[in-house]
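Q: Joint fold for the lines below.
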Amino acid sequence: MIERLCVIGVGLIGGSLARALRAAGVVREIVGCTRHAEHLQRAVDLGVIDRFDTDPATAVEGADLVFVSVPLGAMGAIFAAIGDALADNAVVTDAGSAKAAVVADVRSALGSVPDRFVPGHPIAGTEQSGVEASFAELYQDRRVILTPLPDTDRDAVARVRALWEAAGARVNEMGVEHHDEVLAATSHLPHILAFALVESLARMSEQREIFEYAAGGFRDFTRIASSDPVMWRDICLANGEAILTMIERFDQDIASLADAIRRHDGDRLLAIFQGAKAARDAFLG
Amino acid sequence: MIERLCVIGVGLIGGSLARALRAAGVVREIVGCTRHAEHLQRAVDLGVIDRFDTDPATAVEGADLVFVSVPLGAMGAIFAAIGDALADNAVVTDAGSAKAAVVADVRSALGSVPDRFVPGHPIAGTEQSGVEASFAELYQDRRVILTPLPDTDRDAVARVRALWEAAGARVNEMGVEHHDEVLAATSHLPHILAFALVESLARMSEQREIFEYAAGGFRDFTRIASSDPVMWRDICLANGEAILTMIERFDQDIASLADAIRRHDGDRLLAIFQGAKAARDAFLG
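A: Joint structure:
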């Protein structure tokens, strides 16, 4: 049981976790915190949190679990603000989608990474954002990756794992760097490609016409280009190195495919497409 | 009213048009043709066609409308086979997704492009294929592009337009080259990116693990990588020039985005992502 959960950043991610834990009956009190009181009042009205405080330092007082789900660019400031105010037994975790950057921000905000801080990342979300879009089932059967450091308290890891499992998620642990590489491949690169493609088409002179002839496949393909631009800017800045490595790798694959088209190499094209279809059908169903 | 419709290639595209026209009550008899009798018998059993003939030349006898929906690589052979067998009043149209290649194949098969041949392309489909996947509503509110040549008989164009409208589609006309550019941008490039991304990830050593952490966005983004590899090989070969132009343009956009990441240029990244989101939200809803 969590006696007092403090959620810093009450949007889709934070709001949905609060709803899920309340629905699971594993939390006694939920305190919300963001900069805007009217936003927090809305979260109270929706029954997502019990009460709120716009000051992170007072919001975390007496909380035994703190969930930081603010944009990547705001992590450092939040940890600097709450560092001295945390209860001795408080376990802190976050939802940042680039773990090396969060760990670095925590380290520079506090001088060192607290052993009861468990870096985490729920692989879930929609193109919506804000507390109004939050729902208790968001994490059902979704993956959550925890990236504890060598010094991280194992009891703190167990508490965070239990929290996510109570929300319906499946929890895995891996190293910080490996997380960042996996996410660059499966999430960051696809988003960047979708954004770039839509931007590319929008700049073509026949833009309105172009989009009129876009079929279902294009809609699916570019849905993620409707995601929050600020969040994606932050991710690109926070996980730049791993993303650039993936872009480079992908560039080579596209160049080799373009080369096959140029040489009218049907066998090579077929092999690439068959390999991709087999992989997708096998792994994603 | 169509007295006798001959559908050459009775799969998702041909089967769905047959079903739609029958449901609309605008066709008296439907003759199907592919190479495999058992496949055609299945189409008869499903009520998609009335009878069949595995020989294209005899299948088109007496037909006043012929719909050729075979893979791009098979177009030339079909037109060579039916050229002399077509009734004088027969209007012929096709469903090839690259129009310059189809027109060139028809020209080399017959010596010239018949003035009652109306090149066409329904912008519709699913990742499924085969007559079992066909359904009457496939073309409802979908776009169909017709690319008549300067010499194409206007009455033939009107008949083909009426046929598609009876199937529920919205019909536009444009030039052959423009069609191929628009489709390279909205369909061919996205498919190639999706295939290349999945193939790229599948070759990474942690492939199984990688796909396990793929979230909903990745599934949407790569759904089109489950499309028919043979069809996409044919499209790449048939529309290679326009596709290579789009790949080149896209390469530059990705390079500029990678450059912004490398320079930690958050403003530039935000502008790109905001532009893409605005375009997608405005045009695709």
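Q: Anything notable?
A: Chain A touches chain B through 84 residues (CB under 8 Å). The first helix of chain A runs from residue 12 to 24.
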